[in-house]
Amino acid sequence: MFSSHFSFAIRFFRKEGAYTLLNLLGLILGIGIGIILLLYLQNELSYDTHHSKGDRVYRVSQYMKTKSGEYNTARTPRELGPLLKKEIPEVLNYVRFNLFDKTMITVHNKSGKEAKFYEERVMETDSSLLSLFTHEVFEGNPKNCLSGPGKVVLTLSIAKKYYGDKPALGRVITLPTGEKRTVSAVISDLPDNSHLKYDLLLSEISERKRFANTEDLIRKSEAFWNPRCYTYVLMPEEYRADDWNDRFQVIFENHYTSFGKKIEGSATSALTVLSDIHYTSDLQDDEVQGDLSYLYTFATIGLLVILLVSVNYMNMATARSIVRTKEIGIRKVLGSTRRQLFFSVLSEALIMSLLAMFFAIIIVFIVLEATPFNSWINKDLNLNFLSNPQLLFGVLIISLSVGLISGLYPAAYIPSVKVTSALKGSVQTNRIETYLRKSLIVLQFSVSIFVVLLVVMMNQQTSYLKSTDIGFNKDNLLVIPLQGSMTGKVDAIRNKLYSNPNILSITSARTTPGINVHSPAFRVEQDGEMVIKSLGVIITGSDYLKTMEMEIVEGRDFRPEDSRRESPGVIINQTAAEELGWARNPLNKRVRFFNGKVDMHVIGVVKDFNFQSLHNSIGPLVILRSGRESGALHVRVLQKGLDQTLAFLKEQFEVFDPAHPFEYSFVNQEFEKQYQAEQIQMQLISLLSVICIIVSALGLIGLSAFNIDQKAKEISIRKVIGASTESILVKFSKEYVFLILVAIVLAIPSADYMINEWLAAFAYQVNIKWYIYLIPGFLVLLLGLIIVLLQSIKSAQANPVRSLRQS
Length: 807
Prior knowledge:
single chain, alpha+beta
């Protein structure tokens, strides 16, 4: 029976070659998108599931509330981990990670030569790491590789980077402090779907001596209000995390309250299971987090593309049923039952879908292996059915589902034709069937316009983020780290660099706006008292406002005497002046570090600028001038001759600091990295929008060609009685124009709702003009009109006598 269905299907495919090809192309696109969607979702929804004990490993977080504000952080004090294991029986083990800033690693070869590398994923950790986190160990002993001081564990990629294919075990590296570490193990790299990423692991968490080496209970307690580490705990099977905070409160009473009373503070703690961290965390001081709304958007549009290709097949198959009526009638006369015909037509869709699956797999493999697609979306997707049998099962399910959805309606409709009507070739389409076919066309174009609208609006927002005035000039501004002895040479460096006319201004700062500005607690003057308030803080050298091109709106800029210890001056932003109640008279108001003894006085107010991501609104900020310049040089340069300027800077820094490789970054590029997730999301949706348009266009090409072919006789008669080519084109195109206009009307409200939901994540949103909503619809309408006109013009210009004879 199946062989009979198969042979009928192949015969039909060969007979209707052009329409088979159009359907096949659509199905290949749809199933190909389905495969990529499956790979992407599989990757995204399996964050941290590669750890064998992942369902028992939890990250500890803290929520702290004081008079200065609230602080919900993913980090904990480094002193907390050992206490958790000691005082909470359910904690079977723990591991902490103390993050380092970008670190220069000096690698020593056996020949005595040195190589220097900057690494961004360097962490201190505990010896229990491999008891909680799963890694394959290529070199070294997993039981003691992190036990004791002076050890470092490398990931495999870092070991190959440093030593090639030679053994790394026993080799020595040097940290910026001059401390030497011996390689004690080489472990497997973390997969890209890990929320916490590390390349070098240093044994033992260093103590904070200012808290540890004191008998002052308040001082010791203060350590617990300064979270710096990530802490993970291993819990028993089926542990109920809801009970965690009750146990934590005992530790709070014993270790937090001495200092907590001083700041009127309270603290609670929560656990998050490892696999939930990436998509459920909204904590401060966390790693880069995923956004489920992006995932849902991508998944929804991917499913809509699959639905589109199914609708496309369904629409064209039912339309083509008119030319199959004699075949169906003859098969019924020869004894085929309606059930047999149903499965015969359905098998055509399934065979077509499986054939499309074969080609889709080949195309997806080429896309993943031979194009920059993976780097484009910042993933490492691969088609490996042997190591990922769930993927093969998923691909089969998608392909069979597409075949079933595509074929069910044609399989039910085509065999329902009466034998007498079929043999006469006089099958008439009823009104319901006509409305259904038109509805399917509207659905196709409505989805396409919806997706294109999302792309256009997302592009508007990302362009706005790049071009909006953030309160300072981030273009042509370089950041060059000051390392080692460089902090004592800033004046000499500045004098030398100013000899280059392409260098306009130079300053230094310990933080860079939009990248790494923190908000510690200060004491500020309010109603004659000093109250606690969290303020963003930037500590700078000379010429900061000039170099950053910031505007003073009240008071004055820094002078050299403002950095003296006795009575330093500070500059605040407009938001700080308003929130602290100083808007009318901010000058000479007092500000003090939380544990500081010296009052600082406000000397000026700077115009508000974005010192955090544009996802966040502008908060209160204080700018201090330090007498000792450190952190990084911020160098304003001309765009003209930039390559020569960079070469000059490299040359000078190699003279002043031969111990460190020259490195720099551009502030505007670092700023844009904050919106990388939005960029990737927009790129993926842009790809889907193109495919939506292609699928809809393929469907319209096939359907319009068929309809015009069926109306060839009507077109000829109209020409004989004097109709012009233009009037015929208008006659046969206005129906499709109407359907696309309906699709536009349906797509706009849905797209508007979705984009407003997406924009809610941004504190600063683009004002989308009303006509932006119409442009994508107009372009799709124009495309549809071109397709129909190109199909119609051939029939409209044909010899009517020849067409009537053929009819």
